[in-house]
Amino acid sequence: MQFLHIIYLICLFANFNSCKGLKSEISKKLQAHSIIDKANASEAFLASFSNKKKRWSRNLINEDLMKEGASLESFSSLGKLSPNTEIDYFTAENGISILLISDRGSREAAFAYSIGCGFYQDPDNLPGLAHLMEHVTFLGSEQHPNATEWDEFLSTNGGIANAYTTSDLTVYYVLSPPRKLKLILDYFTTMLKSPIMDEKTVTAEINAVNQEHEKNIPNIIRLMLELALFQAPQNSPARKFGTGNFDTLFKNPKEKNINVTAALKELHNSCYTSDNISLVIKGPYNLSILKEIAEQAVNVIPSSKATAGIATIEDRTSSRPYSSTKIDNSVIIPSDFNNIGFSTVDSLGELEKIIHEEPVVSKLIKIKRGNSSPPLIMIYWPDESNSMTLMHESAEWQIFSFIKYYIENKGGNSLYTQLYNKGLAHKIEFFDHITTKYSIIGILITASDTNDETTQKIANLVTNYMDILSNKVKHEDNWLNSFYQNYTKMANIDFKYEETRNTAELVSQSAENLLIFPKEPEIAISAYHTPNKFLSENNLSELQKKVLISLVDTLTPNRASIIKLSDEDFSSKSSEEIRFFEPYDIKYTLQDLHISPSVNELESMNIDEILSCVPKNLSIINLNETNCPSYQENGRTVSGTKILSVYEPCCIYTDEKLAIFWKGPIHKVPAIHLTFVQRLASSFINNNISGIIYAKIHAIVMDKRYQEVIAPFSACGATTISDFNRGRFITAIDAYSSNFGHIINGIKNSYPFGNKKPTEIEFNKALSNFKSQISSFSDVLAYEVGIDIASSIYLSNYYSKIELRDAILKLNINYLDYLHHIDENFSEGYVDALIVGNIDSINSHEYVKLIYDHAIQKPISYEECVHDGVLDLPADIIVTAKNPISSDYNNAIVANFLTPPVDLLDTSIYSTIGELISVPFYDTVRTSWQDGYVAFAGVSMATPSMVLVGAVQSADRSLNTLECHIFDALKKIFHSLKKQFDSEQGLIDFHKRVKWFGPASQSVQKLETLSSYVAHFSKMIISHEICFYKGDLIETATDIFLKKPIFTFEKLGSLIEPSKNRRLVIVQLEGQSDDAISSTSISSNSLISDTNQRISSNQITPPPTDEQCHDILNEQLSSVIKIKLEDKSQITNLNLNGKLRATRSQLSYSKNQNYSIYNDKFQCSVRINNAKDASGTSDKEIKSLMNIFISKRFSSLHNIKESEYINSVQNILREKKSHNENLYIRCKDNYSNKHTYCGCKG
Known about the structure:
The chain is an alpha+beta fold and 1242 residues long.
C-alpha cells in the first residue's frame, strides 16, 4: 500500500516544507507537468541526481543517483497491478532479450529499451559521448529526419517518452495508449536503429547537453557525489564526467581535431548492437499478440555483436563471491519497500568491546558552501571489488534494507535520532550508488552548523555507529533473521495491497535487470510477484549472510570518507593545498580527519519488540443495508473496478466551526487516511509575515512530535506529515487500519497545551531547521525560484522563500513570543477534515473529534478564518531579482498569465489549452530555438482562477531574449492551433482532445485506487472546494456546451495577447556573473550559430531577430509595471493607470476586497454567457441547453430534490445561512436518525 504516494501528493499541493523528507521514499511518484506543484513544492536532498531530457518536470532522487537525462517520475500515469498478469521471456532471432508482461487490467501500454552502454564507455578524450548519443536518438531517423517530428507524432498519438543515461546503461522508455503501442514502438525502433548523426544535428544537441550541465552546476549535492566518485583510483571509470559539456564535446575536440560525429557513429556501432539490447513491453493484450508486436519491431535491427558495454562482461550471473549455488529467488521483494525495523537487547558496554581500539584516519574533503546551501556533510564508503555482487543482491533481496532502517528511522535509537537529539543534525538520508565497476554507500546529513567541531562529532558518532552495526551483523544471527523475517511479512502485506505502480519505472527497471542479468530473468520480473519466499526456511541462507558480511566489512571507520560544505576561507591556503575539480570549476582541499574510537556519545542501542506493528487484522469492514440502512451500494464500475456507493465523500458532521467528510472502504484496502486542515484567524494571518514564520516553526515542532508518535509504526506503512501553508496547518496521516487508532491516540497527546508546551530546546532546534530550509537554494532550479516569487505576487497569504529568508534576519524570533502565539493564535481555528478508508462513519467522527478537541482550544467560524484567494491585478507586473542560487549563471523567465475566476466550462477549456500547448512550446523553444534545457508551458489551478505558466532558463540567452521567445512561441502556437482545427477533420480532432483533456483533471476515472482518491479529494478539502461532484459536472458541461473550437482559442488569445483585461505576472531572474562562465558562454555562441543553420536547413520556424524582439516586447509590455523584488511589498494592488494605489500592508484581506476567493455556486456552475459563446447558439437555444445541463446536474447529485437544492442556493445567495449549507445537503435527510454517520443516502 503506497501511503507515501498519498501523503506526497497532498504535501506538494500544500507547499509542505517537510516534503523534502519524503522524496527518497516516493522518488517515482510525482506526476509530470503539474505547474502549481512546481510553484509550491520543495526539493529533496538528493533531488539533483536525475535530470530531465525530453519533458521537464521536477527532479527527484532515483535508485541510480547519477542518471543523466530523465527520471522515471516524468510519467503521470500509474499502472494498476492486475491479478491476471502473465509474463513471458525469450530471445529474438537477432539476440535481443525480450520480456513481455500481459496485464489485462491495465489501461495503458509501455515499453523500455535498455542499451548496455553508458558513460563508462565514453572515450577518455570525449566525456559525455554516451549522454549525447541519448539526446541525438530522439532527433529523428533516416525514415523520419525532422528533429521535432517524433515529439509531434508522440503527442498526436497520446504517448509520453523519455530517457536517461547511467554509468552502465542508456534506457529509453515510452508510455502509450494500448491501441497505439505497435505504431509507436515501430517508429521508435527505427530511431534506435539509425538515428540522424549529421554534424549540424550533433552540434545543436551538444548545446542542449551543455545547457543541461549548466543547469546541474549549482546543484551542490550532485557536485558532492561526483566529487566522491572522482576520488576513485586513477584507472577507475567511476572518475569519468558522464554529463559532458561545451568543453568536453565541442571546444576540446575542435582543438584536438577530434570528429565528435564520427565518434558517435563508432559508439553506436560498438554498443547499440542486438546482443547489447533488452526490450520490455507491458500492455493489456495477451502474450501472443505482444510477442508478435515485439518481433515485428525488433526485426529491423540486424544481428550484431557488441565490442563494448554490458554484453562484453564475461559472466553476469555468477556475481556472488562465495558460491555459485543459487537460492530460491523466483519471487523477490520489490524495490519500493523500505524501513522495516528490528531490535536487540545488547548493552552498550558489550558493544564497546568490539569497537576498534585505536584512532583511525579518514579522508576529509572541504568545498566552499556558498550562500545558498545548507551545512551538508556526506559520509561515504567506496567499494571497488564487490560492485556486481551488490548490484545483484540489491535487485534480488534488498540487501541494504536493514542499514537504511537503522540510519533513517525517526524513532528508537536510529542514527537519525541520535544525531538529532544531540543537536548535531536536522536531516539524514541513506543512499547507494551501485554500478558494475564501482560502488558508494553513503549518508547525507544536514548538519546544525559548519563548525569543524560539529563535523568531528558527527564523523565520530556515525562511523562508530556503523562499526557497531557491522559487528552485530557478524555476530547475531537471531537478531538478523528476525529483522528479515518481519521485513518479509511486511513486504508481503504491502505488496498485496499496493494498488498502483509506476508503469514507466516497472518497464525501465525490468529492462535494466534483464540486460545486466540475462540468465536470471526472474530478477527482471520480480516486481510482478509477491515476495513471500525470499528467505530460506524463514532465515537468511548462508550465502546471503556471507554477502551481507562482505558488505558491512566495507563500512569500517578507516574506509570512510567525508565531504563537507565549509565556510573556511580558501584564500589562506597554499597552492599545494588547493585542488581543482574541472567539470564544476570548483576548488577543494583534502586533509586527514582522525576519528575517535569512543562510543560514549552513543545512546543505548536497545530497541523495542521487533515489528510489533505488523498488522494482524487485515479484514475489510462491511457496510450494507443491514447494519447501515443509509449506506447504499448503488455505485459504478470504473475500468473494470467496482466502486461501491457514490464516489464522493459524505459530510457526516458539520457546524459553524467544523466539517467532517468521510468515505468508507470502497477500495477494499485495510488502510485509513486522514487529512486535518486547521485554518487560523484572518485577523492574525493577513499581512503578518512574522506570524507566518512562527506558524512555520510551530509546524516543524509538531511534525517532529508526530514523527516520534508514528516511529513504532513507520516500518509498517504509517506516515504522517504536517506543515503550515497560506494560513492553515495541514496534517495528513496514513496507516493500516489496525494501527490507526493507536496513532490517533498518540497524535492527540502531542498538542502543545497545558503541561505539554514545547521546550526551549524544541523551539531552538525547529528554528535552526527552518533557517536551514529557507536559506537553502541548492536543491532548486532558477525557474522554480521564479515561480515561487510569482506565486507570492498573486496568491493570498503566500510569501516566497526569499521573503522569508530576508524577514527572519530582521525579526526578533524568540521563544517567549512563540509560547504566546501557541496560546493566543495556534490554539484557534476552523477545521475541515477528510477521513477515508477501512473505517465506518461513527469511528471516523470519534477520531476526528478526538484530534479536534485537543488541537482547537478556541473554535472560530469559517467567515473568521483565512481564505485562499487570487489577487485581482488591474495591471501587468514584472518583478526583477538576482538569482539567489550560488554558482548558478542561468537567467530565468517565468510568465504567469492569470485567468478570471473559472466556472466548469472554463476549467475544461483551460485544461485543454494546457495540454495543447505543452508539446509545441517545448519543441519550439527548447528543441528548435535551443533556448535552454528547461522550457515548458502548461496550465494549472490556482483557486479560484487558473494560471498559464511559460518558463525557460538558460545561461546563454539574455533575459530579454528569453522573454521575447516566450511571447513569440505562444503567439505562433496560438495561430498554428487555430489553423489546425479550422477544418472538418480538425473539428473532429478537437472534440476528441477536449473530451480527453478537459474533464481529465477531475475525472472519476482517476479515483479507482485509494491513493488517487485521497490525493484528489484532499486537495479539494485543503482549498475548501467542496464541489465534490465537479468532475461529473465538467464532463457534462463539456459535452453539452463546448462545440466551437474558436471559443477555446479566444480564451487562449485573451490570456496571451496584450489588453486591458489581461493579468500577467513575469519574474525576471538574472543569473550570477563570472568571468570564467562568461568566456564559456561567448565561446558557445558558435553552437547557437550552428543551431540557427540547422533551423534554416530544416525549414523550422526561426526565432525572432533582435529587432523583432524589440517590437514584440514593446507591444506586449507597453503598460507593465516593473519593480525590483525588494520593493515587492508596494505592488500588491495597482490602479488601471499602472500607478501604485495601496501597499500590501494597507489592504483589508479579511473583507476579501482585493482577492477573488472560491465560491461554490460559481465554480461549480456554468455561466450563461460562457455557455452561449462556447456552443454558438441563440438565447432561446441556450436556455434549452441550460435546462438539459441542470437536469443532468441534478441527476449527478443522485436524486436530490430540485427544490431542496434551489432553496439551499437561495439561502446562500441571501447569505442567511452558513457557508456549510451546500456542504451537507446531500446528507441532510440523514441527520434525523441514529444512522446519521453511516453515509450519504444514494
